[in-house]
Amino acid sequence: MKFNFGFFKSLTVGSLLATSVFADTELTVYTAVEAEDLSRYAAKFNESHPDIKINWVRDSTGIITAKLLAEKNNPQADVVWGLAGTSLLLLKSEGMLEPYAPAGVEKLDSKFVDGDNPPAWVGMDAWVAAVCYNTVEAGKAGLTPPTSWKDLTDAQYAGHLIMPNPNSSGTGFLDVSSWLQLFGEEGGWEYMDALHENIARYTHSGSKPCKLAAAGEIPIGISFAFRGAKSKAAGAPLDIIVPSEGVGWDMEATAIVAGTSKLEAAQKLVDFSVTKEANEMYNQGYAVVAYPGVAKPVEHFPEGLIEAMIPNDFEFAANNRARILKEWQSRYDGKSDPK
Amino acid sequence: MNSANIGNTVVKPKGLVKAKLSRDDIIMRGGMIVIALYLVISLVFPLYSMFSKSFSTFQYDLSKFEVQISDDAGQFSPEIASLQNLNKDLKAITDEELSTGSGGRLGVTIFFPDFSFRSPVMYRIRNVDGQGRFLVGSKLMTGTDWQELDSNTFRRVQLRPVRSTGLSNFINYFSTPALFKSIQNSIFIAIISTVITVILAFWFAYALNRSCMRFKGFFRLIAMAPILVPSLLPGIALVYLFGAQGVIKGLLFGASIYGPIGIIIGSVFFTFPHAFLIISTALAISDARLYEAAISLKASAWKTFWTVTIPGARYGIISAAFVVFNLVITDFGLPKVIGGQFNVLAVDIYKQVIGQQNFEMGAVVSVVLIIPAILAFAIDRVVQSKQVALLTARSVPFNPKPSSRADIIFTIYCGLVGLFIIGMLGICQFAALIKFWPYDLSLSLNNYQFDKMDGGGWGAYYNSIKMALLTALIGTCVIFFGAYLVEKSSGFKTGRAIFQMFAMLPMAIPGMVLGLAYIFFFNNPENPLHIVYGTMAILVICTVTHFYTVSHLTAVTALKQMDSEFESVSASLKQPTFKLFSRVTVPVCLPAILDIAIYLFVNAMTTVSAVVFLYSPKTSLASIAVLNMDDAGDIAPAAAMGMMIFYTNIFARVIHLILSKGVLRRTQAWRSSN
Amino acid sequence: MEGIKDPQSSYLSIKNLWKSFGSFTALKDVSLDIKEGEFVCFLGPSGCGKTTLLRAIAGLDLQTSGAVVQGGKDISNFPASERDYGIVFQSYALFPNLTIEKNIAFGLENTGRSKSEINERVSELLDLIGLPEQGPKYPAQLSGGQQQRIALARAIASGPGLLLLDEPLSALDAKVRVYLRHEIKTLQQKLGVTTIMVTHDQEEALSMADRIVVMNEGKVEQIGTPNEVYCKPETLFVADFIGEMTQFRGTISGKSLVKIGNTELNMVEHRFSQGREVSITIRPEDIIPLGAKLPAKSGKNVFSAQLVEMEFLGSFWRCKLKSDEFPEALVTADFSVNAVRRLAIEPNQILWIELPSESILAFDVQAA
Predict the structure, then answer these.
(1) What is the ipTM score, two decimals?
(2) Which residues of A touch B618 (CB under 8 A)?
(3) Rounded to the nearest 5 degrees, what angle is found at the Cα of C208, between the Cα atoms of C286 and C30?
(4) Is B356 within 8 Å of A325 when comparing Cβ atoms?
(5) Which of B176, B267, B505, C26 registers the highest number of CB atoms within 10 A of its CB?
């Protein structure tokens, strides 16, 4: 649209000048990390950097990605912290990320660091798909526990299955892209066609299927292991199942948004994100972290999950994302959980 | 001395008199221009941005890319080919497929049938001018320099689309069955909900106005309760009532609450007070003389009902129907929570924008949604103006006579409706206090630990109160002052007519559409007003604008009841209009002003649709928190937050009542004295 | 009070005023002069433009063209707040949430008067309008007539040079109306304030005004004293609008003769030429009943007629008479109760009547 904004400019110059200068730096950080973990990270970071205040913008992966893309020409965020690797690749391809090699980046597992030099993003941890299985409700419905992805297409699960919509959930997309990688392009869609027959509905967020399973709204939710472990710890009658074919995963990664006016503070936060102590904190919720040798077993985490992680092709996922989502929408969108 | 003009001599007027404006005239016109400007910026410009966005399309412009290919030895031939020419011969991609979304990517290897990533052939690719864009892997290339790539890298080249203008978004929309189905779905649930709500509300209003049943005041209060909660809340209540673990799911006989059934039950709940209010007003003004006539003609009760009652209330019923239709078709919260796989237009906007980052398609769905909304709104306006005409007729108020049988039936009926409303709210409060539904039914306040959930925590709740107070304060001032200027200033006819039109427009614009339009307008870096983006200010501006029309009409109605000569008298007494405004107009209109304030407050507390695109971390709202917590699967905390909104609104209404009764008793002493 | 105080010169001059609303012309070239201290009524049927004229004088709805000069000052384009007048509306327009005192004091504030001066002036005005105890009450607690007097007090509180009254009495019932006529007139004379009153009630205008401006279709038909407009109407409209009359079509047949059908009537000298078609009028109360027998010494214009209808209106009888001499219309005549009793007039009786020649007026024929 073409407005003549000159008039407004003159109106608002005054108020711009009036904006007071903060004594502290405030960083606006967009994140898809679970809300309950954010205050821990901020507290730890502020131990060494009390002058930098973090304002979290927390939403699901899809929404945060949408927000960032929408704000492409007028970025509101200074740092993206803990967003799906596929989303960061997408942002990188829009030229939205400021390359920066944080101090100590060389210590990280190289598959967690962007290949470019300096890297556009650095990984923090990985989250891994899993199936949340409510033993109580499954028992009532007379279901047998599935052991593989293929099992889930069995007729006994019809209407007892919920998964996230890949169009809005990062978890949903990593499921879909892992199936396409595991079963091949054609086999992947065939698998999803069969799975679709059993799905009760698709949810908007990736954690909701597991929470719904935990609450007994549905016996089986395709979600991710971390969420399942938490719900189980909260007392839900859940089993966390690792399908035998292997599971998709995505990393959470951090990057600086190009054009930020607070580059120095942003770099400090990214420096913090690759430290050992930060990685130790990631480990409280994630079995896999970027800093080698840090990971300790997480309570209720299923066995053999790390071994089941497939070799993920992030570039395939990022560059084919639009195409995959369009295809997915045209095939299954009638059953998507509206948001 | 008699200068009577007896003859027919035609004297032409000469020298037109140009009014000299008084200081008051200038101030009032200035004020009106300022408020009109506010409406232009907060409504007209954003909508214009949205319309233009819906015509903004993305195309792969193949003519913008040039390639060169080498032989096996890596020697490039001098021939430069544009991808457009290659496609002309190959037909690798149709013109239709060239149109895409803003996130579209097109692998370049489809233009090279002999391509093999193992071959030693080298490729060069470049943008013809600054407009082309392509990716190598995930690196964005915008320059016009040649990029020399081996085959293995060349397969990672993806073309990016460029922006253009056209109808292809609309063509795309109507050819996507999943999206097109939403129109049908939206209209379907809107019609069914409208029919049920209007029938239920009619008998409820009939019972309260035309019977001698007891507890009328109580039932009236109950009927208004749904207005105090966000439309998401009935959805959450239905999950607990009829979901897989619902307490009375047996009543559905195995049908799923996730889908049209849930949307319709929830819609009936949240639109009930609106329909009830309108129909109740219509029934209250019916003329007793007609009933006396019917009795004298020995007409049966049934015949009287159809020939007197229904025609008398028909405008109210029609108006209620269109208001309900509009509310349902534009609502987003309820289908989001309980809609299951049943897609509707308002949710589509959200999914297109948030889920797929397809802002252009979001704008297209918005345009589609505006059409039924504007239509319903226009019909309602016409009908309401006729209702007013009925009101002015001289009629004798109808006084119902006791009839024990009918009164008992009506009491039972109202009791059932009341139970439905209380039950929906009660289950939410109950679920909010349960530790882990359905496996641990012990009571706990865990679900009130909002800070551990998504959505903004307790901060969101306090933000909501702040936002609602600001909206009530600023909105009431702006809207009442605007209505005063347009009603009471003299001359300046065209200006006033345009202002009136602007003031009526917001009601026809669904909240989702307004919110989306705000993104397009305010989140534009060229717009200096983008500094309000992400602040509390934009939420207040958006909410004031969203609820402008009803408040404006309330103010206008109150102002019309004032003597139109007050301004003339004041001017003849050489007193500034401002003095009249503060000493007379505001005190006399205080009841209406308080009504506007409470209306804005309650709606600001419950609104979701308009602000869902506009909140930021610092300005998350309680209603948004309900949405996000539900979305993350934290349904019980969502219910808890929803009930916090309910109690806050009740508290606000009590304050409003005390103000109306207490403060008004003093300032309105002149009313009762007679 | 401002302005030049010279009873001979005009205090308010309206010059060639035009006012149009779109294609409708509400005022057509209206001009008039009002003297200092005069009480002038604008009289006419609804829609004649009298209120439009008043509002133009007040500056509430500005004229399209033409000038308004008040006290020697051209105020043609002045906004209302810069003019010097007080106004009373039909609706009273009292501020409902202010007490009577506050209403009257409204225009006294911000004029450099002290609080005690204002209070003094308010109680003086309350005394003047005869409502000394009502100050602390609200308007809704008073009767319509009382409210109208408050509105009057408010309008004259600051001593304006001009008082404008827009149908001030028409919302009141008949008795109060008659009483207030007298009150207002007395007050106006006491204060000597130049006053313009708009009314559609001819009785009101005749009883209160020094001069009456009769208006019709946006034009001034006649300006004159009540006696002039009643007895010497200058146009058929004025004759028709003020008082009752019977109207005939006639032809001028002499210097003071007019022919209706075959009957020749004597009348006073007129300005019409021989053979001219004219409208002839006579007021009902001017017709003299002579009784069933023709008296010995009867004057001119004496005819016999049949009394076809009699209606008792309290102080007189309204009679419809049918005469062979004037076949085109029934003649309306008002006979006093006294005369009817004395002459034993009864319905259907044949009666002799006299049409006094000085009561017969001739006008231009107007299109119906």
Answers:
(1) 0.81
(2) 55
(3) 90
(4) yes
(5) B267
